[in-house]
Amino acid sequence: MSPAEQTPIRDGELIAAVDMGSNSFHLVVARMEHGEPRVIDRLRDTVRMAAGLRADGTLDAERRARAMACLARFGQRIAGLPSIRVRAVATNTVRRLASPQTFLTTAEAALGHPIEVVSGREEGRLIFLGAAHDLPASREPRLVIDVGGGSTEFIIGRGLAPLHTESVQAGCIASTLRFFPGGKLTRKRWQRARSEIGVLLQQFAEDFRESGWQDAYGSSGTAKSIGAVVQAMKFSDDGITPASLAALSDALIEHGQIGTLKLPGLIEERAPVIAGGVVIFEAAFAALGIERLRVCESSMREGLLWDLLGRAGGSDPRTASIDALATRYGVDRAQARRVESTALLLFDQVARAWKLDSDAREWLSWASRVHEIGLAIAHSQHHHHGAYILRHADLAGFSRQEQQLLAAVVEMHRRKPDRAVVATLPQRYRQLARYTTALLRLAVLFRRARRAESLPQMRLAASSKSLRLTLPLTWFEQHPLSEADLQQEQSPMAELGIKLDISSS
Asked: What is the maximum span of the chain, computed from C-alpha positions, in angstroms?
């Protein structure tokens, strides 16, 4: 176990966040000062991955090459940082790839650190976390809108906590390409774009309007660009308003062609995608009744830094998500606690031999708490039902790969484990999945009676591919069912690549 994994992040330590957006890639490096991250370096590259996403889910060679070159540069900057102090996430475009893991394998090699794919709602949570730390303190709910390259996130939150999060498949790149092919801007195309995006927003618009948010903010590059243009063109001197958006859209339509677009306050690299961003904001203003939107300087990359601090400092949002999930699906908490305590007892005996750290212990704890959530659907095949829930639920704090890991352990905790389940995981999670599953299976076996009873004196010794479990002979004599279960467990363990030996003392 490394020191970095044992202690919170201390003053003077460096941390970093990588945001692989559909339009731009960002790297922020921060130094801890007085318990807060102080940004000391920023790198940014306009990769525009969304523009290279084909209908079949592949990425064109040019955008792929630009992405890898950018990540290699980022990797050089953070080469000395341990991976536990770096959070790198990919968003909408990578989510939509037909084979994201193929892309990620190469991307991780270029960056030198693991990369996680986050869902739209998790992206929204991180955006709000970053924005909330930048905004004036308030007890009132507020709205944050982040128009990215491939999707737009809408978040209502209070304090540092998001209350409602929605993600729609409409971003500045995707919308510009779809609604204004060839870069031609006409009023008819504009009205069609606004109408179609408006339909997407109607799915949640009423709920958002009734939630009682007080102030609205726009984060990331699209909002900053629009804010700069409406101010430079004197359409507004206090944020973005419906009137300023209407004036800007008129100016864009009057110009007629994206390729030659030049406006006061509009930087050159934003010109090709500004139209899609403006029409999204117009639709959002109309659907949600926004009268004024101010620009927020912080977004997801800053949220990643704060989330990294939370994970290291004992306020990991993933733990709260696990407990909320257990409540939602009516998990037998007493049984879950019995299984968890037994699993952790076994973990502590083999952690050194298997080189398992505190992070691995946390994964075993989480899996133990929710291993029976599938019972809410049916007892038959409940491990498969539970795995399905874990793969597809919106779990705050978890990336998609992390949810896959948790799902894999739950799916393999009973019956014959499927080796293909492990094979679908990122390489860095495969051994952890096998070891965690093995310990959970044993814990479930020992707690099959589902009642409070003392455990026998047991010794569990491990090598890289084996477990030796030693129990008192008298216990075997008194528990013939458990003895039979343990003997039958040898075959499933072999599917995990672990030889299980049972002995008595």
From this structure: 89
